[in-house]
Design goal:
The protein is an all-alpha fold. The protein has 15 helices and no strands. About 75% of the residues lie in helices and about 0% in strands.
């Protein structure tokens, strides 16, 4: 497959920012902040900085996500390839700026809360970098889905709680699991959409390694698993108003219906934004259920 089969439009800033994915930062950080307030540890300035830093880190992750494609475009000649490489580099630099500003906010929070938050932050930033950064590159090793579950899900919720409240809570780890599952589902939706491109360019994502059929089943399982796990949390006393979770039920069926399409079908481009929409609706309702 020719490297120019990759869609050059996806590197434009508006698309590279991936607006649908900001539901992840808003929900995961928001859940951590709300849990801290619920347990009496609220601090509005810390909460504001946590939310802003979370959105900036999400932007940095999105903009850096395509940097591995530089190798593919450098193999080609022509003005289009040169322009695409420049745009990818610009996006990567902007990702660094976003990450730097987020780190400055994080350092202020470390001064306020204590050095353990620094360890959490370093762990998260390094883990996020290695999604596309050498020498690890989770994306090419098939580790992206579990890495997102840990770094973008569990760590974001727990880190937000700790940054706002100044205390650690193992209880928060369990409460973070449903939204962490959806963070993984959002990445899977991207892998399913890009399956043919990734396969043709030997980008060994989890979907390429396991096959499109398995990945679709995994996606559906992860998407639906948030409901029984939320029921379990209610049974354990962590959710107080589970009826809120009835609201997102209709939103789960549309992305699941798209799985009937074949790879490469135009309809599949709707899978990530519809997954992000479900994530946002479920996330807000889950926060309300926790409160």
């Amino acid at each position: 497959m020719d490297a120019l089969d990759l869609n050059p439009d996806k590197y434009r800033l508006a698309r590279a920012l991936r607006p649908f994915s900001y539901s992840v930062a808003l929900v995961t950080c928001g859940l951590g902040v709300v849990l801290a307030y619920q347990q009496g540890y609220g601090d509005w300035l810390r909460a504001l900085l946590v939310m802003l830093a979370g959105v900036l880190l999400q932007a940095a992750s999105n903009l850096a996500n395509d940097h591995a494609d530089v190798v593919l475009w450098k193999k080609r000649s022509g003005e289009l390839a040169r322009q695409v490489v420049k745009q990818i580099h610009r996006n990567f630099i902007l990702a660094g700026v976003c990450a730097f500003i987020a780190c400055l906010m994080g350092l202020w929070l470390v001064i306020e809360v204590g050095w353990p938050l620094l360890l959490l932050g370093v762990f998260g930033v390094v883990g996020g970098y290695f999604y596309t950064g050498e020498p690890v590159v989770y994306k090419h090793r098939g580790w992206g889905v579990p890495a997102v579950f840990l770094f973008t899900g569990v760590l974001m919720v727990s880190g937000a709680f700790y940054a706002v409240g100044g205390v650690w809570s193992n209880e928060v780890l369990w409460i973070s699991i449903p939204v962490s599952l959806l963070a993984s589902a959002l990445l899977l939706s991207n892998e399913i959409r890009d399956y043919l491109d990734d396969l043709g360019h030997n980008i060994r994502t989890l979907t390429v390694r396991t096959g499109i059929k398995f990945s679709k089943r995994l996606y559906a399982t992860v998407l639906l698993a948030v409901f029984p796990f939320s029921v379990l949390l209610f049974w354990l006393g962590e959710l107080h108003n589970p009826l809120y979770l009835i609201i997102p039920l209709p939103f789960v069926f549309t992305p699941l219906k798209l799985l009937a399409n074949h790879s490469g079908d135009a309809e599949m481009v709707r899978l990530p934004p519809l997954t992000g929409q479900f994530f946002m609706v479920f996330g807000v309702c889950f926060i309300l259920a926790v409160v």
